[in-house]
Amino acid sequence: MAVFRLALISTGGTIEKTYQPHSGELRNETSVLDHMLGQLELVELDIERIRLMNKDSLEMIASDHELIAATARTAAERSDGVVVVHGTDRLAESGEATCRAGRPEAPVMFTGAMRPYELRNTDAVQNFTEALLAVRLVEPGVYVAMHNKVLRFPGIAKDHAAGTFRRVD
Fold it and tell me: How confident is the model at residue 2, as a pLDDT?
């Protein structure tokens, strides 16, 4: 089997929040993705890490979504697939921005978590692992992989009541 070339773009979000003992807050201070990657068996996977930003997605503005979209599309030109780790509150805006620019050359898979990686009952590892697998199985397009589902943009929104994503069209 050939090595799969993956671009992994980190933008921050809840999945990467870490506990700050002096303030008692969970904040985007450092990336936890390398630690998560170190716990997984990633056979025949060549990962290019792109540390784009480390923001809570509630703090993102339109130019952040456009930067994420442009970075994902450029990465898709030189990779077999792209995974974008993103905060869930504004993930749909970045997914839609990526989708508006047309079909990417490789699959672009967004993922995140409702609970930080550092918490005992996190969904971070499940969602991240699902995204790493799903990006290898789908055709070029823009998707979100979370909670045992893969949904294709456009027309995806966060379902706050259910704590996941759903189709809205």
Answer: 87
Residue 163 has pLDDT above 90, yes or no: no
Alpha-carbon separation of residue 57 from 70, 88, 117 (angstroms): 17, 7, 16
pLDDT band for 21, please (50, 70, 90 cuts): low
* Beta-carbon contacts of residue 16 (< 8 Å; ≥ 6 apart): 10, 28, 30, 31, 32, 33, 54, 85, 116, 117
Output the CA–CA distances (angstroms, integers) from residue 44 to 2, 27, 108, 125, 136, in the order listed.
7, 33, 19, 20, 11
C-alpha distance across the termini of the chain, in Å: 38
The confidence score (pLDDT) of residue 78 equals 97
The reported pTM is 0.89
